[in-house]
Write a structure and sequence with these properties.
heterodimer; A: alpha+beta; two-stranded antiparallel ribbon; globular
Chain lengths: 225, 223
């Protein structure tokens, strides 16, 4: 488990560097106009505990894995079922104050389609049958197949996935290859902590007025200029 | 639609600026067409669809743990599955501290029927706890061995999200989302599923961690 203080400090440092252009010779940006809602920190969003889980948001996204407690019922974020509305839940826990709202705030609207267009099967393999009549490649008679057996060092990483949408939503495109070449060990070493914080900060800055207009309370610290 | 919903839909449009192609249309998704420089036709002239993992699902009940990985999608209903013998997929399971290290690497790969160049495809699963040797069988069939069930094949893409609303909102600047429109509806994807007795993964009261990755033999796909 990541040390709480060290994780928060790394993320806070990343955010501070972003806002202050650490190590940059760039000129200071023009101050925003009076009345602008300025997001000063998203660390509270990452530090808040997700109701019903006992876990902080940051513990659910770093490392980028799906966490399962077998003693508790299955359902996102304790695992991920096919039918779970993971995007709406994720939006709520990273944007909204969980002391005011619930993880199902967006699900209850609903924000996105609430279910798959085809019902999942009750029996293994559970996934719905394919759409249309695509060409199939199975056989009831084939028993022997030729598989590639090559040394591990001849295989090169292409993609990785754990929690849904972490890479696409919280990692800048120019760092996606690096992120996908890494793994939970690098995540836990906070290699991408400032990146995740920076992207979340950018999103909050864009959306803070939308939250206010919708009567929702952001989890970010906001200051009105 | 209620005003609050409209405002929130605008939020979603900005949260998920992930563009990828499905057929001819750009759209966002969980991990579809990511990383874009390797798997997205907008960024890569030789996108590696077969190695493009879309989603990982993990469920459990009193008896089993079920892991599902989708990749190579969403794809049009007339297209076949992606069974590329030069790509292998690993589901990494951690069942003891530290949580970021892999204790059980379960590896999937595909191959043609022996001695054929266009025969049926099979799937092989290695390193399954409690299984004597590998699990091997035809794709698009349920395979059972030593209490473990495996399936690999083309299925309906289980992910649901109104990515067309995102595309329209970004293009027009006007909120255009609908919660009754699923971009992944009527689209397929390739998947593999493995169901294991939970005592094969369970390690006392330890929590489990799951993640998955793909690798291509010889490096990045170049057509």
């Amino acid at each position: 488990m990541a040390d709480r203080r060290s994780l928060a400090s790394v993320m806070a440092l990343g955010l501070a560097c972003t806002l202050a252009a650490c190590g940059s010779d760039e000129q200071a940006p023009v101050p925003p106009p009076e009345g602008t809602e300025l997001v000063t920190s998203v660390v509270p969003c990452l530090e808040q505990v997700v109701p019903g889980t006992g876990k902080r948001v940051v513990d659910l996204v770093v490392p980028d894995t799906i966490n399962v407690d077998l003693s508790k019922a299955s359902g996102f974020p304790n695992g991920r079922r096919l039918e779970d509305p993971v995007i709406d839940v994720t939006l709520a826990i990273i944007f909204l104050d969980m002391a005011v709202h619930t993880p199902t705030t967006f699900v209850n609207l609903p924000l996105n389609p609430p279910a798959n267009d085809r019902p999942f099967r009750a029996e293994f393999p559970y996934l719905a049958l394919p759409q249309g009549n695509p060409p199939l490649s199975g056989s009831d008679t084939a028993v022997s197949f030729d598989f590639v057996d090559a040394p591990d060092d001849q295989f090169v990483r292409v993609d990785r996935t754990g929690m849904p949408a972490i890479s696409p939503a919280l990692v800048a495109p120019q760092r996606r290859n690096e992120y996908n070449d890494a793994g939970p060990a690098e995540d836990a070493a906070f290699i991408f902590a400032s990146e995740l914080t920076t992207q979340l900060q950018v999103l909050h800055e864009v959306l803070v007025d939308d939250f206010q207009a919708a009567g929702l309370t952001s989890c970010a610290l906001v200051r009105t200029l | 639609m209620r005003p609050v919903a409209l405002a929130l839909l605008g939020c979603a449009a900005i949260l998920l600026p992930l563009a990828f192609l499905t057929g001819e249309k750009p759209a966002p998704a969980a991990d579809h067409l990511d990383p874009p420089a390797r798997t997205n036709p907008n960024s890569d002239s030789t996108p590696d669809f077969a190695a493009d993992i879309a989603d990982l699902y993990v469920t459990h009940d009193d008896d089993v743990v079920t892991m599902t990985v989708t990749f190579g999608g969403p794809s049009s209903p007339q297209l076949p599955a992606f069974y590329d013998p030069n790509v292998r997929y690993t589901i990494s399971v951690s069942n003891q501290a530290p949580r970021q290290t892999t204790d059980i690497p379960i590896v999937f790969s595909f191959g043609r029927e022996s001695g054929t160049s266009d025969g049926a495809f099979g799937v092989r699963v290695k390193n399954v706890p409690g299984v004597d040797g590998d699990i091997i069988g035809s794709v698009e069939r349920i395979i059972e061995k030593d209490g473990v069930r495996v399936f690999a094949g083309l299925v309906d893409d289980p992910f649901f999200f109104d990515s067309q609303g995102l595309t329209d909102t970004r293009r027009t600047g006007a909120l255009s989302f609908r919660n009754d429109r699923d971009f992944f509806g009527a689209q397929n994807i390739t998947a593999f599923v493995i169901e294991i007795p939970r005592d094969r993964l369970e390690n006392g009261a330890n929590e489990l961690e799951f993640w998955t990755f793909s690798e291509r033999l010889g490096g990045q796909f170049n057509g």
